[in-house]
């Protein structure tokens, strides 16, 4: 079974472990475009039983997004920051659970995610599509699963970098005995550097349901393999399009009411809670 390069282990600059692709073609990802555009606080409420500490993490990243760039609202920017935020353990991270759900054959599992997807994809729609070559390092050898000419669909979000040099110095990637570097020519990448918890200059996020064709596969040596992918437009839409509404002031929220997360008291309370949780995790 071919592997998926969605962020099922970590969106940070270290070798990811690929999860399996669905055994058959999945239905398109849809159902969120008709949902209202709400604050991040409201968008994550249906996820409280699915993602641990989701309300606390949403509160924290909102406090970090007070002056967003690129014309995004506070909640829109915070939705991207929340996606890139890594929990301890990493398996509890929102990105990990969301991408597993996007790769599931049971599309009903996406229902609790629809409000968050509406907000996140609206935010990403404000960022220009980037035509560029990007890179993603993973553990293991997948050259047999990616023969030249094969059509591949990655159903989850995929975090990549626009710098190949970054992978050469990534300790986790170079520590692996067998590893694969995906070299991807894409036209729908979004540079999320201004809205990433990782705060890296070359952080490129691929949207879900991207279709690729394998253009080249070869071994470099010393346990390193390269797989080259060319993004192509699918014959029918695999991801429901959502268009961002007219830009508004960064002080306004999607609901038209300033989120209570933005209040000084709430921010201070969150910072204290984060310190307590951090201390408990170290004990």
Automatic annotation (TrEMBL):
SUPFAM superfamilies, A to Z: ADP-ribosylation (SSF56399)
Superkingdom, taxonomy of origin: Eukaryota
Gene3D superfamilies the record matches: Toxin ADP-ribosyltransferase, Chain A, domain 1
Protein name: Mono(ADP-ribosyl)transferase
Naturally occurring in which organism (per UniProt): Rotaria magnacalcarata
């Amino acid at each position: 079974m071919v592997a998926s390069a969605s962020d099922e282990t970590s969106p940070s600059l270290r070798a990811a472990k690929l999860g399996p692709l669905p055994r058959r073609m999945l239905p398109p990802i849809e159902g969120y475009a008709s949902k209202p555009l709400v604050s991040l606080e409201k968008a994550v409420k249906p996820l409280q039983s699915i993602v641990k500490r989701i309300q606390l993490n949403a509160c924290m990243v909102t406090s970090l997004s007070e002056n967003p760039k690129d014309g995004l609202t506070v909640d829109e920017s915070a939705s991207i920051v929340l996606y890139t935020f890594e929990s301890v353990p990493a398996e509890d991270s929102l990105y990990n659970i969301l991408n597993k759900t996007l790769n599931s054959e049971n599309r009903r599992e996406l229902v609790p995610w629809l409000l968050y997807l509406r907000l996140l994809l609206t935010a990403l729609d404000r960022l220009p599509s980037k035509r560029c070559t990007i890179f993603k390092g993973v553990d293991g050898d997948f050259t047999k699963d990616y023969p030249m000419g094969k059509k591949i669909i990655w159903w989850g979000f995929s975090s990549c970098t626009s710098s190949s040099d970054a992978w050469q110095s990534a300790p986790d990637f170079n520590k692996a005995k067998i590893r694969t570097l995906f070299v991807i020519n894409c036209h729908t990448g979004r540079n999320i550097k201004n809205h990433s918890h990782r705060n890296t200059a070359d952080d490129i996020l691929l949207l879900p349901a991207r279709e690729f064709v394998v253009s080249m596969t070869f071994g470099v040596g010393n346990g390193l393999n390269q797989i080259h992918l060319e993004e192509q437009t699918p014959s029918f839409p695999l991801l429901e399009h959502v268009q961002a509404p007219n830009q508004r002031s960064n002080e306004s929220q999607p609901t038209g009411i300033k989120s209570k997360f933005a209040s000084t008291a709430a921010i201070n309370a969150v910072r204290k809670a984060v310190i307590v949780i951090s201390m408990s995790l170290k004990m």
